[in-house]
Amino acid sequence: MQAHHWLYSWKTMVLASVLFPPLGLILVWTRPSTRLSRRILNSIYISALTFFYLYRFVGLRVERDGSGMMPMFSFQKSGEAHYAELEKNRARHAQLPVSQPVAEDARSTEPTVPVAPGEPAKNITVQPSQAETPLKVVQRPGGSYWTDFRGPKRDGAYDEMDILTTWPAQGLPLLWKQPIGGGYASFVVATGRAFTIEQRRSQEVVAAYDLETGRELWTHSWDGDFRESMGGDGPRATPAWHEGRLYALGALGELRCLQAKSGKLIWNRNILSDNQTGNLQWGMSAAPLVVDDNVIVLPGGRSGKSVVAYNKDTGAPVWQALDDKQAYTSPMLVTLAGQRQVLIVSAQRAAGLTAEDGKLLWDFPWTTSHNVNSAQPLVVGENRLFISAGYGHGAALVEVTLTSDGFSAKSLWQNVNMKNKFNSSVYYQGHIYGLDEAILSCIDAETGERKWKGGRYGYGQLLLASGHLIILTESGDVVLVKATPESHVEVSRFSAIEGRTWNHPALASGRLLLRNTNEMACFKISK
Description:
Helix content is 13%, strand content 38%. Strands 4-11-10-9-8 form a 5-stranded antiparallel beta sheet, with no helix packed on it. The chain has a 5-stranded mixed beta sheet with strand order 6-32-33-34-35, with no helix packed on it. Strand 21 (339-345) and strand 22 form a beta hairpin. The termini are far apart.
């Protein structure tokens, strides 16, 4: 009786709860003569202590999902612990092999003379590879295919080669996995290198990685620390690669042109201060677009400075257009109704501009809650485009026509069967596949009719390849689904990276590149 009293004494339960909370929870609920209200209250205290231990010592992270309502739990290091792990990992890169170099565009071998036509560059850091002589040399895939956000046409479609559509039970072969800095940018890939932009402590960092080994080849950084409590911190816009140069945009508007081979600065501007405008709530997110001799960005400045073109070689302003408040979509080079043009979706409308001087060709009203347009439009015919938005807004098929009075745009259908929030759809054989909020859906592009809806993948991202959808779920799984209007057919699935994952995947040379704010990985997906 005395032993029983000792076991269920309050001192024992407090000690057990502090040293091993699950034991304390058991004692609370098995202790005789304890009121239910006290058991519940003590359970809340012990649960809170458990979460503190998991956070402090195991790396528990709690983030909101894409709806902003539901919590997501993962185990990974954050803050200083994460940066320390990243730096330790990069220090080991001197022991990694480096792939055989592939010839880049001749422009990348020109002498670099930093030109700063805007604000002078500050706090530039370029870190080359840490080993002069690699231990091992492997063959690097050549070519420059995935050089833009969501692929060559910015439409999420991969057609460089056939992919493997029968996956091993354990998932695709892993080539490498390692920590990465924060932010929501994707990768671009050229000449055997993968490029992205990250947040590392109080700096935005453009980094180049060897595609085959993951070895960090160089970094270029500047002071910049964008913070946003709801969406998350860090840069958003994916860099663009063009003729041996990299065009990177930070979340605070810093635009830099770098040598892709070395990371050396060629020129820099700040597109917000240049165009007398403030930042968006969720930061500058539109990937720069290189067209002819210009690089086009979307600062959202008023007085005709919403869309701006800079000379890609010098950074000098070339033209400015529109007065729109901007949103979070990236500009695209498309041909509609026989006219080559720059397609944008601002906070107010979809519009086509001439690539040469930014003249407005046509527009179509497209205003959503909170001015959030984040999904990329899709060209689905010679004169038709698909646009979509979340927050209950839905989608529309827009037809652009040329008449004697110029171009005009009208809706062929509009409904709520596809609501892309901050993810984008793909188009295949007359049908559109995308995440309707958090559930995969297929609709008929001609009519807007829903063919099926199934598969809860959260607010992830997807690509199209070899008649299949490659889905990177919000929780970091990779899923293969047949792109067929008949029904939802999931072929394969495996866990790829840890933590909330909103970044777009990238595909090049048969390699699938994934990242989120904490981790990056590369898988072989070629046959």
